[in-house]
Structures are given as structure tokens and as C-alpha cells.
């Protein structure tokens, strides 16, 4: 893929460059390596959730439970860490992720529930379980090794950023180059055609939800380690942040299209905006407003860039609008 | 109303779709418009219905030039179109009556409580006129395709059109339903309505039309009264060259039985015993609903099989889902390319290799892209799938090339048995011939082919043998000279009428 097609497919990249350029003029601090690593560090948790979410959304489903799954696995991990030590704690956290993903996947495939409803329900259940388990109190973490996951650096780069990059590389490769990845796209585009081609579409979906759950657990490790404490409500709202990153990255909610490179850029766009507004001292209340507007702008550009480009070419030359398939409906109205 | 098109031109960008089209339609005339996909039929339809404006040329109504600036202007002149995608013009959750008067309900019936009663009566009367018996309070979603089409026609008739354009109206209808539609069309013609009838099917065109206009590359290549024409002349005008081999059937049948069913039964078919030999095409005749489509689906594991046994090359196979069918080397070409055939957003290449991907992956699951590209490329060349690049989305190919890509997927899977349901539905004449060549190629390789088609000339020409099904059972087997349209229809319909 050459640079031109990449830029064309990855419109979020333009967004990232634009925001980056504006911020590097607006703030002297922005374009320093320390600050850029901070952006990566801050974006890493939502970015990990967005990886699983990308798989699920390409399958034309959605996983609203990732934030709550992060919170639940974080408190389970922290409690096991206090009683049984590091390895059992990590195993327990991953087990929670697998279990949540499996339940979501089976609800969507075997019980035939719409994923929006199924994961909305598991989100509520997991949120409640986290609070019940901890009586609503944060669980402190004192294990140095565990804290290292969130606080150490390797060759100057924060470990969460490294984990994020490795996860994107591995899952990006799986999506783009393996049989399973191909099945994800095919099932998301047309599940019936995929089934008729011999693909076990239900299994493909269940596995995607499991990936989403496990990565939520991993994101929970990072967040807990960074803060040295597991908050039962730590993941609240992060599912929406992850979905926003996926959508900004150009993945279609209708399924069948999307890339993890796009999602990474989408997560970084959100991270850079957060960071920039902090540097520029924007009121925290207004930050959400700006973020919402950015999401709208990114999706608007993604959906309408071709139409906008068409306007420009039509002015300069003969019209390029092909007879569209919507004409019949228009004709009847 | 007499409508005349004079020297009409239309381009989309660099694509000159119409290059000076002119013809007339007289009142009470059925004009058939034929031509391959892309010949310009749809564009003419849209120009006459006001959806597109011509770049040059004139439209005259009763000798006076008119400008049809939008569909409303055309409707005001009494021009009604029933598009091929007519289902999209109906609202599935509204009732039949509400759909029929969706544009002008208040103007016709007012807003009072009695309005609904009056609307239902009017709808019943309108359907009665067409000899259609339906409860007009039913939601459109509960109707079958033929019934929906009748509703759409009745809806058009409520506007008392003087010109009705029907675009491929029988694409989704079976023999009997089509016949009823033809009766309606003739009735309209006798009432003085002009009809433009667009169809790929020669038998229909000759049966129904007074005059035939053929388009090729945006020009009229034939405009002649039907009694002076033969099928061959029309097809030649469409494709532009002699078509000696419209149905180029090679005989490749051997004695070696590949597929054998004994007493197979399912939801709407029973006691199906068939044998298909290597290199043989077994046609299945019958009206829609006779069980032949469900039989194919059941053999491929899509619909339940409630009894009987199936063997392939002598060994019993048990198929509970498509995956097991593919493992038993059975392939199935669905009649609904969009819903069940292709993943339209995926590349041509990914679609072609989808059922054979395991061949390009090891234990790691990583796809060997070079090998995939070579093999899919070879199959695509072999089957003449024309795509600018194997990486382009399959949905952006023409209908004929999409269908060939679907064939390529199954050819690539290397089946012993290929079940095909309506393999040439909605593809143009040129692509049809290429698909017949693909079938020849498969039989030459020893594949056993089962062919279900509503296109009788195709079924007759391409099958070595035909079994006819009626009400879920095989009623006869036709071989040799007895494989003809007449005897297939007789056996398919007798007792059912």
C-alpha cells in the first residue's frame, strides 16, 4: 500500500496531523518526547479496549461491557494479589476476561440476543458485582512487580505504551494476515454468505468477544498498576471512549470494514486532544464538549469526504456522479 | 398518449450511456425493450420517468415537446414506473391499502374516521380490477414476492397511468405468477395504456410485446414489429455478433455415479431418488414452491433433511451444515447472490478463496498471500472474471462478473457435486453464455451438476436429463428428445392448475 492510498483510507491520520500541528504551535511543551510519551501512556488503556472493540465492530456487533469488565477484572486481580500473590492474580484477571467474553459471545450467538442489549446487561451486572465485591471501596495494590506494569520504563518508554504497541502489532497481524482475520471480515460483511462458505460464524463471533474480554482484563492490569489501586468504577465510560476510537479510525458500524491501524490513530487522536486541552488549560467541563465535537467531525469527514470531493470536481469539470442505486426510491417520492 | 424520444443523449462523466436514442410508443401498445446490462435501458427508464434529464434530444408527448424536470412532472402526465427493485418502494410494516395510497391518502379520503374504511374499500376494488384476491389489511411484510408486485402494480394503477414501465417484472416470479402478470399487462393494453416492458427473457418478450426495441451501447439497433422477428435476430441485435452458440452445451456425461439420493425427504419434498453421474447435468423442473430449491438447500445442509440417505462416489455422507457439505465436496450456488453469495465489501480475491482458505494456511493460520493470489488469479482468468484488480471490492463488479466470481469460489473449492439454483438470474446475455461455458468446464472435469432454473430454454439446453418435481415429489424423468419445454411444463403443472 503506497502513501497515497494509506492517506486516503486512513482519514483519521489527517485529523491526527492537523490537531498535532495546531498544538505544536499553541504549546511549546506539546512536541517534546516526554509529553508525547505521556499521550501514549494516557491513551494506552482505552486503546487496548479499542483493539477488541475493533474485532467486534467489524463483525457488526458491539461490546458495551468492556469498561465494566475492566473494572471487575481489576478488583478481582487486586484482591487475589493481596491474598495469593502475583501469578494467581494475573491468572484470575485473565480468567475474568475470558469468562465475560464467553458469556457475551454465547448470549449473542446461541441465545440470539442483539449484542447491544446483551452487553448492556452484562455491563450492568459486572458494574454491580465490582461494587458488591469491594463494598464500593478502592483496593490498594502494594506489589512492586505488579506496579511495574504501569509505572516502569524500558529504554525510556513506559511499559503500558510498549504493551499497547505489541498488542496492536499482534492483533493487527492476526486481523490482516490470518485465516481468522479473514473470517472476521467475511462474517461481518455477510454472515450468511460466510456460513455458506463453510465458516463457523458463531465461533468466529464468540472468539472476538473473548478477545475483547481478555484485552479488557489486560487494560485493567495497566490501569490498576499505574494508580496502585483498583477502583470498582475505574472502567466506567471507557467503553464509549474505545468505541469512539474505533469509529474515528474508520471502522464501519455496519461491519465488514476497518483496520487496527485506523483504531490506533483514532485512539491517539483522542489522546492528543485530551493532552492538548490540559496543556492549554481548558476547563475540564469543556473538554468533554470538545471531544464530542471532534468525534462528530471525524465521522462526518469519513462519511462525506467523497461527496465533498465530488462537489469540488463538479465545479471544475463535467459531473462525475454515476447513476446511483437510490434513484428509484427518489423517483417514487 | 403517444410518446416519442428523439435523438436523446446522456452521459455520466466520461461514460456515454445514450448516444442518440429515438423511438415511439403508441397508445395501447406493448413495447418490449431489450439489451444487455449497461446498454442504456435503465437510463431511458429514468429519463422517461423524470428521474434523469437528457443532455440533448427531445421528449414529445402527443407531438408536443415536454420537459420532465422531476418524477412528479412525469407522474402528472400519467407515467408510472415499476422498478426491478420494486420491493424497496413498499413499506413493509404498513398494510397493503396504506401502501397503495401512501402518496395521496388524505387528498383522496380526507382525515375523518371514515377515511380508513373508504381507503380499504377503494384498495379492495382496485385489486379486484386486477383479479387479485388479497386481504388489504395485511402488512406488506407478510406477502410473497408475487403478491408484492401485484400491490405495486395496483398502486400504480390508482394513478390511472397512460404509460406504464415495467423493469424486469418477472425476475422474481415463477411460471404461473408470470402468466398472471401477462394477463394484467394485456388487459391494460386493451384499455389503451401504453406499456414499456423490459426483460432479458426472449420467450416472454415474444409472447407479450407488439414491438421490440433493442439497445446496444446506447443506440437503438433494432426497432421492429414482433411478427416480423425471430429470436435469433433479437439476440444478434443485443450482442452485436452472430450467436451460433447461445447455449454451448458440451456432453460430458459418464457412467460413473457421483451423487445418489435414496428416499430423501425434508420440509416440503419427499422420496427423492436421483442419481447424478460424473460430468452430467441433471436439471430439475417444476414451479416455484415444488420443493426443488429446498431440496438443494437440504443437500447442502442449509435446510433440515428428515429422512433418506445420500452417497457421494459410493460412500455415505451426512451433512448437517454447509461446512460438512463442503468437506464432503458438495458446493451450492445460491439464487440470491447478494444475501447468500458474496461478501460485497471484501475483495474479489478474498471472496474467491473464501471456501478454500485452509489450503493457504498452515497450523499458524497465517494466509500465504502469494499462493492465494496465484491460484485465485488462475481461476479468475479461467472463468473470465473481469476485474480491474483482484483487490477491488467484489460489490463494484457488474452483475455478470459478480456471478462469475461466485462460480470461481466454488470451482476453486474443487467440488464433486455442484448444486446450482438459478445460476444466470439477473445477468446479461453475454455473461450467460460465459456461465454456460463454465458449466461445460465443470462437467469436463467430471463434476456432477444439479441445475435448477426457471429459465426453461436454459434448463432444456443445458441439462443432459431433467427430472420434474410437483408438490414435493419427482413426477417424471425426461431424457433425450423428451427434454423439451412443452413436456417439462406439462408435468410441472398438471394437477396443480
TrEMBL record, chain A:
<feature type="transmembrane region" description="Helical">
    <location>
        <begin position="154"/>
        <end position="176"/>
    </location>
</feature>
<dbReference type="GO" id="GO:0022857">
    <property type="term" value="F:transmembrane transporter activity"/>
</dbReference>
<feature type="transmembrane region" description="Helical">
    <location>
        <begin position="87"/>
        <end position="108"/>
    </location>
</feature>
<feature type="transmembrane region" description="Helical">
    <location>
        <begin position="115"/>
        <end position="134"/>
    </location>
</feature>
<feature type="transmembrane region" description="Helical">
    <location>
        <begin position="64"/>
        <end position="81"/>
    </location>
</feature>
<feature type="transmembrane region" description="Helical">
    <location>
        <begin position="37"/>
        <end position="57"/>
    </location>
</feature>
<feature type="transmembrane region" description="Helical">
    <location>
        <begin position="12"/>
        <end position="31"/>
    </location>
</feature>
<keyword id="KW-0812">Transmembrane</keyword>
<keyword id="KW-1133">Transmembrane helix</keyword>
<keyword id="KW-1003">Cell membrane</keyword>
<keyword id="KW-0472">Membrane</keyword>
<dbReference type="InterPro" id="IPR001851">
    <property type="entry name" value="ABC_transp_permease"/>
</dbReference>
<feature type="transmembrane region" description="Helical">
    <location>
        <begin position="243"/>
        <end position="273"/>
    </location>
</feature>
<feature type="transmembrane region" description="Helical">
    <location>
        <begin position="204"/>
        <end position="223"/>
    </location>
</feature>
<dbReference type="Pfam" id="PF02653">
    <property type="entry name" value="BPD_transp_2"/>
</dbReference>
<dbReference type="GO" id="GO:0005886">
    <property type="term" value="C:plasma membrane"/>
</dbReference>
<protein>
    <submittedName>
        <fullName>Ribose ABC transporter permease</fullName>
    </submittedName>
</protein>
From TrEMBL, chain B:
<keyword id="KW-1003">Cell membrane</keyword>
<dbReference type="InterPro" id="IPR003439">
    <property type="entry name" value="ABC_transporter-like_ATP-bd"/>
</dbReference>
<keyword id="KW-0472">Membrane</keyword>
<protein>
    <submittedName>
        <fullName>Ribose import ATP-binding protein RbsA</fullName>
    </submittedName>
</protein>
<keyword id="KW-0813">Transport</keyword>
<dbReference type="GO" id="GO:0016887">
    <property type="term" value="F:ATP hydrolysis activity"/>
</dbReference>
<dbReference type="Pfam" id="PF00005">
    <property type="entry name" value="ABC_tran"/>
</dbReference>
<keyword id="KW-0067">ATP-binding</keyword>
<keyword id="KW-1278">Translocase</keyword>
<feature type="domain" description="ABC transporter">
    <location>
        <begin position="3"/>
        <end position="242"/>
    </location>
</feature>
<dbReference type="InterPro" id="IPR050107">
    <property type="entry name" value="ABC_carbohydrate_import_ATPase"/>
</dbReference>
<dbReference type="InterPro" id="IPR003593">
    <property type="entry name" value="AAA+_ATPase"/>
</dbReference>
<feature type="domain" description="ABC transporter">
    <location>
        <begin position="253"/>
        <end position="496"/>
    </location>
</feature>
<keyword id="KW-0547">Nucleotide-binding</keyword>
<keyword id="KW-0677">Repeat</keyword>
<dbReference type="InterPro" id="IPR017871">
    <property type="entry name" value="ABC_transporter-like_CS"/>
</dbReference>
<dbReference type="InterPro" id="IPR027417">
    <property type="entry name" value="P-loop_NTPase"/>
</dbReference>
<keyword id="KW-0762">Sugar transport</keyword>
<dbReference type="GO" id="GO:0005524">
    <property type="term" value="F:ATP binding"/>
</dbReference>
